[in-house]
Amino acid sequence: MTPLLTTDAIVVESYVGPKDERSLADDVLDGLTRPFKELPPKHFYDARGAELFDRICELPEYYPTRAERAILEERSADIVEATGAAELVELGSGTAAKTRLLLRAMADAGTLRRYVPLDVTESMVLTCADELVDEFPGLRVHGIVGDFERHLTHVPPPDGPRIVAFLGGTIGNFTPGTRRRFLRAIGRLLRPGVDHLLLGTDLVKDPAVLEAAYDDSAGVTAEFNRNVLHVINRELDANFDVGAYEHVAFFDREREWIEMRLRAERRMDVHVGKLGLDVAFAPREELRTEISAKFTVKRLTADLAASGLELRDVLTDPDELFALSLSGRPAG
Ligand SMILES: C[S@@+](CC[C@H](N)C(=O)[O-])C[C@H]1O[C@@H](n2cnc3c(N)ncnc32)[C@H](O)[C@@H]1O
Q1: Quick one: which atom of ligand 1 is closest to the CA of 168?
Q2: Number of H helices, E strands in the chain
Q3: Measured between alpha carbons, how far is 242 from 118 in angstroms, rounded to an integer?
Q4: Most-buried pick from 143, 149, 215, 262 (CB within 10 A)?
Q5: Of 298, 87, 304, nearest in space to 187 by CA
Q6: Could you give the residue ranges of the DSSP H alpha helices within the chain?
Q7: How does DSSP classify residue 200?
Q8: Pick from 29, 324, 326: which is nearest to 167 by CA?
Q9: Is residue 227 very low, low, confident or very high in pLDDT (cuts 50, 70, 90)?
């Protein structure tokens, strides 16, 4: 652990170190040597990737952020009343843009004590810690720079009734089996009958609406998708010809998830210097970079139940595009 910042109101700790460079190296070695090439989506998010994601959230086609925000605008006070939350732990907190609505409702209810953002992007955690202690006098921030798949155990013990928020539909990036394992790990941060999970899930809908959200006309999502190749070029001394990979996004109707892929325009021989690895792409060969599962209430309830969590409430926006659910471990 490396302490990054300590003031009266803020503690920020980093668990990202040389081992995490290994995690990119391991994922590249593992993912690019498979018959069907694949990389996990967390490697999109260097500073440029985080900035591109922010731009995606503003796009007319990208409804999830607006829909989730609309729910929080309407229902944050109810969520705080139902949970009595004094502490908000947020996984993949990013710029904490929507989270401020919840923190505001907690402050208005007089319960707000601590915010615990956890994100892989160091600059995001530091910036939002600074901004939030200014915005909410008396708030303490315990920031964690880390990987939510590996560093959940570093979330400090609760300081009052806790909400763990996992917003933005990021849970959809997990395949079904790992999704349940991850929800179970989140459950370990919750005390039975006391704490709650607030989970954002994108809902199954017209495939045309879904596909447009992941393939916008301005090409921002395409840039975001290709950013993972820039990250590998820089961090692992590779020579991907980034512009020669085409962005592909489609809704898999059977699995009910969006897939993002990068398609090689022509035959490509890539060298990854730091790994001493040569990877060949056949013309039009695809590399899967993200899945984003879409949910029904039935699927959500089943996933939560299989992870030891009980669904308490489902809140949706007026167009029923997106859902925020409250769940917890059953008391006793
Ligand atoms: C899709 S964005 C969502 C951001 C924000 N919560 C929202 O709802 O708009 C995903 C965020 O999770 C972070 N992230 C992605 N994978 C992560 C991981 N494995 N561990 C920690 N943070 C991760 C990214 O840095 C990014 O800020």
Answers
A1: 8
A2: 9, 15
A3: 30
A4: 143
A5: 304
A6: 18-32, 47-58, 63-83, 99-109, 122-135, 176-187, 207-213, 220-236, 297-306
A7: E
A8: 324
A9: very high
Report the alpha-carbon distance of residue 309 to residue 305 in Å, rounded: 5
The predicted model scores a pTM of: 0.95
- Joined tokens for residue 113: 């004590």
Q: Which helix (H) or strand (E) holds 197?
A: strand 196-202
CA distance 203 to 289: 21
Read off the pLDDT of residues 84-140 as tens digits, 9 standing for 90 and up: 999 999 999 988 999 999 999 999 999 999 999 999 888 889 999 999 999 999 999
Among protein residues, the one with the nearest Cα to ligand 1's atom 15 is 42
DSSP track, 95-121? T-TTHHHHHHHHHHHT---EEEEEES-
90 neighbors 115 (Cβ within 8 angstroms) = yes
Residue 236, both tokens: 């692992």
Whose CA is closest to atom 6 on ligand 1?
Answer: 93
Among protein residues, the one with the nearest Cα to ligand 1's atom 7 is 168
121 lines ligand 1 (CB under 6 A): yes
